[in-house]
Amino acid sequence: MILFVVFASAVGYVISQATGYGTSFTVMVFAISIVSSIGSYYFSDQVVLSTSGAVAIKKSDNPELFRIVENLAIAGGVPMPKIYIIKDPSPNAFATGRDPQHASVAVTTGILDRLSKSELEGVIAHELSHVKNFDIRLMAIAAVLVGFIAIAADLFMRGLIWGGIRNENEDRKGQGLFIILGLIFAIIAPIVASLIQLAVSRKREFL
After folding, report:
1. What is the Cα–Cα distance from 22 to 95, expressed in whole angstroms?
2. pLDDT over 70 at 88, yes or no
3. Which of 62, 84, 139, 163 is paired with 113 by a 20 to 30 Å CA distance?
4. Which structural domains are found in the chain, ordered by start?
5. 6 and 29 Cβ atoms separated by less than 8 Å
6. Are 123 and 144 in contact (CB under 8 A)?
7. Which residues are catalytic?
8. Reduced to 3 states, what is the DSSP secondary structure of residue 98?
9. Distance CA 59, CA 49 (A)
10. What own/partner pairs with CB < 8 Å and gap ≥ 24 does 154-162 have?
11. Dist CA 40 CA 34 (whole Å)
């Protein structure tokens, strides 16, 4: 998370030098990156659950699912996570949260309808392994980083298109260099960031 703040500030500096907005823009990006880091740590799970339409359940709502999660949590040595169900015919499941003490597991109605009990146990056990190994925190931070890069690149490109470049900087040559660096960043960075996120995700899934 510290590296994310440093990286975001560096990006803000490049954009500010390219557009001529000065250090105020860098300070603003620095502040936003800190808020994003704190937000991703404490609230990323709620954002994911709310956007996916997940509804929390109690034991009485789905006793079989509740018992499966409870038994596997005990066997895996992790605290009992909150359980959510998403009304979606596609078979899917995911875990989210910042640590095992604040974890949630969500499953779709599609996966509940299609899988047998033993198959569902395999899926839930897999998701609980993400909880136990803190993959849920890693992927939340990675998602915020990718989102930030995409927004920063979009803002820079919009600034160029709509004439957001200021010429208050006396070092025109230096500003031109930063504009070139900014363009390279705006084109390549979102692609690289997405590839890194996918690589991290696949690696953690395989492990």
Report:
1. 42
2. yes
3. 139
4. 2-45+137-206 (no CATH), 47-135 (3.30.2010.10)
5. no
6. no
7. 127
8. coil
9. 19
10. 154/186, 155/15, 156/15, 156/18, 156/19, 156/182, 156/185, 156/186, 157/186, 159/15, 159/19
11. 10
Confidence of residue 163 (pLDDT cuts 50, 70, 90): low
The sign one gets for the Cα dihedral 168, 171, 172, 174 is: negative
- Residue 165 or residue 25, greater confidence: 25
Q: How far is CA 184 from CA 29, 71, 84, 171, 198, in A?
A: 19, 51, 42, 20, 21
And the tokens for 90? Answer: 């596609």
Average pLDDT, the chain: 83
What percent helix, strand, coil does the chain show, rounded to 5? 70, 10, 20
For 23, other C-beta atoms within 10 Å of its C-beta total 12
Q: Give me the residues paired with residue 75 across strands.
A: none
Asked if 146 and 201 count as a contact pair (C-beta separation under 8 A), the reply is no
Look at residue 162 and give its three-state secondary structure.
coil
Contact, 165 vs 179, CB < 8 A? yes
By the 10 Å C-beta count (0-12 exposed, 13-18 middle, 19+ buried), 62 is classed as middle
Q: What are phi and psi of 93, to 5 degrees?
A: -160, 150
Left (φ > 0), alpha (ψ -120 to 50) or beta: where does 164 sit? alpha
